[in-house]
Amino acid sequence: MSQSRLRRAVVALTALPLLALGAGQAVAAPAPTPAPAAAASKVTAIEDEVARTLAASLADPALRERLRSATAAAPAGAELTPLAAGLSGATARGLAAATARADRAVATAKGLGDLGPLLRVQLADPSMRAALDAGAAPLVAIAGTDEHARTVRAYDTAGRVRGLDAATLPTRPVYLVDIDTAKALTAGIDLLQRELTARGIAPAAPAAPTAVQAAGWWGTKITSVEVNDDEEPWFKGAAEMFSLVSGFGLDGKVRVDSVAMPYLQYDGTVYYPNQILVNWSNYKYNLADVVLMEDDGDTNYLALAQAVAAVLLTIADQGAYIPLVNAVLAALPASWWTDDPDYVESWYTLARTSTGRLNGARGNGWMTVEPYWVSQL
């Protein structure tokens, strides 16, 4: 593949490097003691069961043809549950029922409500299309979260497990079962902000604006951004990332704003989003923090909000800016520091006047920013 795949869907709590306007030195973020790798997560287990069920269902020629056509029309992924809808036969009905249950189970595991179809399927690589069109029997696997895996478990139409080399693109067509992380991320960001607000990490009601404030507000705009990674597995899907910008609100209480970054999908790729990251009219001090993370498919947004709020609510305004990145990182579950971390990068003390390239504290990414005046119409 020409681009290495990022770990999926990320959460970002924003904080930019100390002395960001100086030599660009990065402040190392503290790393907790690594925890032993956890067993397969709920979402991974659900996806694996769906992959096995789908593989067995592809013994049905009508379903196999429908899947081939659907993935050709939607290379980024076709929703699984609607695929079986409308087809007659016990196999199609069984698959539709199983994937509908799995959709609800995935949403529950991520702390979300019923979002409708979440599971999707795609061909692992476009080069497999020719063999698939020629009638080759496909395998079904899941878009794995462990970039360091040496083998990938796949299923054939007889339900047998086939081990695939994670470092070599298979010659046999492989379908990957994944979740629609863009849909999950949108719902997760909304839930995260609601839960943080309900727990007191909320925007304060703005005071009556001054004449200058009424004319607009200063923001920090991301002009370019890149995340680094050395892995290039064929079985990975695109990432879904977001940021949580943290600082002190106008009322002197800790404030967290979630910022979706759906364009940040692949490592080793420079993106030019021109995205507003911080609205400085919401902050008391001229500094904010940022932590970038990913939704690896297993991110539970409700648990994340609870963990972050529990720590940040203990921090009080002392009349001066206090960096919040370390407190946020300390709140993350231990499982997010294992081989497949949800934590990606962090930046300390982003100022309203920050400009130019800012390297992340972890050394895994950078962004260029500039002040931006947003005027009223």
Automatic annotation (TrEMBL):
Pfam families: DUF3103
Keywords: Signal
Source organism: Kitasatospora purpeofusca
UniProt cross-references to InterPro entries, sorted A to Z: DUF3103, TAT_signal
Highest rank taxon of the organism: Bacteria
Sections of the chain in a coiled coil: none
Keyword Translocase: no
Protein's name in the database: DUF3103 domain-containing protein
The keyword ATP-binding appears for this protein: no
Position of the signal peptide: 1-28
